[in-house]
Each structure stands twice: as C-alpha cells, then as structure tokens.
C-alpha cells in the first residue's frame, strides 16, 4: 500500500499500476497542490511534453433517438439546436482553415445511436478530408461494430471516439436507451478494427467521488490514447438544467488522479472547460496535455488563437 504521492510515482515508474485502494488514497490526499505536482511529475517521467489541440464538427445534429439526460441533442431535451449542416465542400474548407490555425486533429461528430444509413456518406467525407488536409481524422458516430471500424480505418480515419461518460454503476441513472457495456464493446471493436481510441467522461452529472474514480479505472483498463474530460454545462431545456457547473478544484483533483491512472494517455480538457477560469493554467502545468479547442457540439467554445497564446505563455508546445 502506498503512503505518499512519491510512493505512487515509484510504483508507476516500476511499471505497476495503482490498485483501487491506492488510487482512493491519492484522491483523498488533503493537498490539491501536492496532487497536481505529483501529476506533473508523472507527465515528465512518461515523456508527455506538449499539448495537443483538436477540434470537432457536427455532421448530424440533434433529434437523437437516445435518452442521455446530460445531452441537449437527446430525446429528453427540448433545447433548440439548429439541425442544418455544412455542405461537404464547406466542411473541407472549414477543415483547411482549422489546419491553418495550427490544430492537427479534427473529429467529425454525429448525434444518434449509431451511424446507420449515413455511414457511406461519412466514409466518402473522411476520404475527401484526408486528401485535402494533413489533419489526423477522428470520428464519433455512436455504437459501431468491427466491420464498421475497419471501413472507417480504410477510409483514412485514425481514431474513434466514444465516451464512457461515467461509472458503470451510475450510467443507468443517466441513460436507459443504451448501456455502458455497449460503449465498451464499441471501443473494443474500434481497437480491433485498427483505430486508436478517444474515450472519457463528463464531470458534474451528480456522480460521487467513487464514480469518478471507477470511471478512471474503467478507462485505464481500456487504455484510450486520448481521454476527454468534459465539465457539465447545464443548458436550458435539458433535464440537468438546474445543476451547477463543477468546481475548478474538483476538476483539478480528478485530472490529477486520472493522470496517475492513465500515465500514457493524452488527458484532454473538452466541453465546459470555461468553468475552470484561471485554473486552466494549473491544469496544463500539471496533469492535462490536451485541449479541445474552437466551438463544442452544443455550446460556444474557446478561441484557437487564444488557446495557442496561453500555451506559449506557459512555455508549452503544441503536440499532435
Ligand atoms: S450523448 Fe450521443 S447518444 Fe446520447 S443523446 Fe446525445 S447525441 Fe444521442
């Protein structure tokens, strides 16, 4: 059993992972500063220099069949979202502009349980974006099987995104139309199909500290290359509209814990990160080595130039 942040670092350096009990000990450590300093040291020892910037674009918005309580696109939401989408030509232009702004990873994101009848169109779009740009391409099209993953890979996709969202035990309180296990199966299918993985969760859904720890452990078992940390941004018209946004200290502690659980993954602050305010700098100097930049799916995001300027001011380089 570890008795200090230093012990946890030594375990990771010896190629071991932390048990649930040890991770809990870390999470309950009284000092956020010590936890952040430890997470920064994990990052240094595992050679995780630089910060990756990625951007997303919705290719199918709203009218989702699924009932995820936290999502403005779900069947449970009455929030107004514009369902119109860009033409393929306009999307290629947008991807080129994103690349010119210094972002190297770009994801197509769709509402819905699965790609359904839109998959062929999106495969063409991915091939087209691959020819027109040097961006690493990602996609988030809901639940997929191995065959679909192979087709996405063949079209030029490098990474598949599917958030676990929260712990397996809390997930049914938030979504009844699909399961945590179906998401895990999708991630395994994507891996089998030759794609790298992006999977994380949302903080502020009413989950406990134990749920946050269990989600981190579930992610560590899968080992996604990228782990987005979203902060609930409660929107009017969604069932979680009355909730408050997560507090910066809680988010910093979670990111530090997950850095210990996922030392080789890119930990990426994503939707809702404006709630962090000035704490964003502490996150980037500590556990976090990735940012979703530009607009998010259903909320206005950050400015790419501003994010790049922040990295420069912190002495951090952009990474793929
Ligand atoms: S999170 Fe995805 S599956 Fe769930 S309601 Fe939103 S778009 Fe649909």
From TrEMBL:
It catalyses: (4R,5S)-dethiobiotin + (sulfur carrier)-SH + 2 reduced [2Fe-2S]-[ferredoxin] + 2 S-adenosyl-L-methionine = (sulfur carrier)-H + biotin + 2 5'-deoxyadenosine + 2 L-methionine + 2 oxidized [2Fe-2S]-[ferredoxin]. Pathway: Cofactor biosynthesis; biotin biosynthesis; biotin from 7,8-diaminononanoate: step 2/2. CDD domains: Radical_SAM (cd01335). Residues 46-273 form the Radical SAM core domain. Its cofactor is [2Fe-2S] cluster; [4Fe-4S] cluster. GO terms for molecular function: 2 iron, 2 sulfur cluster binding; 4 iron, 4 sulfur cluster binding; biotin synthase activity; iron ion binding. [4Fe-4S] cluster binds at residues 64, 68, 71. SUPFAM superfamilies: Radical SAM enzymes (SSF102114). PROSITE patterns: RADICAL_SAM. It holds the Pfam family BATS. Its EC number is 2.8.1.6. Binds 1 [2Fe-2S] cluster. The cluster is coordinated with 3 cysteines and 1 arginine. The keyword Membrane does not apply. GO terms for biological process: biotin biosynthetic process. [2Fe-2S] cluster binds at residues 107, 138, 198, 268. Keywords: 2Fe-2S, 4Fe-4S, Biotin biosynthesis, Iron, Iron-sulfur, Metal-binding, S-adenosyl-L-methionine, Transferase. It is an enzyme of class 2 (transferase). The keyword Iron-sulfur applies. Catalyzes the conversion of dethiobiotin (DTB) to biotin by the insertion of a sulfur atom into dethiobiotin via a radical-based mechanism. Homodimer. HAMAP family: BioB (MF_01694). Belongs to the radical SAM superfamily. Biotin synthase family. This is Biotin synthase.
């Amino acid at each position: 059993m570890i008795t200090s942040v230093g012990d946890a670092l030594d375990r990771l350096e010896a190629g071991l992972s932390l048990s649930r009990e040890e991770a809990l000990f870390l999470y309950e450590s009284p000092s956020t500063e010590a936890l952040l300093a430890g997470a920064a040291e994990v990052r240094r020892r595992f050679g995780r220099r630089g910060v990756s910037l990625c951007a997303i674009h919705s290719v199918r918005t709203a009218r989702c069949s699924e009932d995820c309580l936290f999502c403005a696109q779900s069947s449970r939401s009455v929030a107004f979202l514009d369902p119109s989408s860009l033409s393929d030509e306009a999307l290629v232009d947008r991807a080129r502009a994103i690349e010119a702004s210094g972002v190297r990873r770009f994801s197509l994101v769709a509402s819905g349980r699965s790609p359904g009848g839109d998959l062929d169109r999106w495969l063409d779009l991915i091939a087209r974006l691959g020819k027109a740009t040097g961006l690493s391409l990602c996609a988030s099209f809901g639940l997929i099987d191995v065959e679909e993953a192979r087709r996405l890979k063949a079209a030029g996709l490098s990474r598949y995104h599917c958030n676990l969202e929260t712990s397996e035990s809390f997930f049914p309180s938030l979504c009844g139309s699909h399961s945590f296990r179906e998401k895990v199966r999708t991630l395994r299918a994507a891996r089998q199909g030759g794609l790298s993985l992006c999977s994380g969760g949302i903080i502020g859904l009413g989950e406990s500290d134990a749920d946050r720890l269990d989600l981190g452990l579930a992610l560590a078992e899968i080992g996604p290359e990228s782990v987005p940390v979203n902060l609930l941004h409660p929107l009017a018209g969604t069932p979680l509209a009355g909730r408050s946004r997560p507090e910066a200290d809680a988010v910093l502690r979670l990111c530090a814990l997950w850095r210990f659980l996922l030392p080789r993954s890119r930990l990426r602050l994503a939707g809702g990160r404006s709630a962090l305010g000035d704490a964003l700098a502490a996150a980037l100097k500590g556990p976090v080595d990735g940012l979703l930049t530009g607009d998010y799916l259903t909320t206005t995001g950050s400015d790419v130039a501003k994010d790049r300027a922040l990295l420069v001011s912190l002495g951090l380089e952009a990474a793929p």
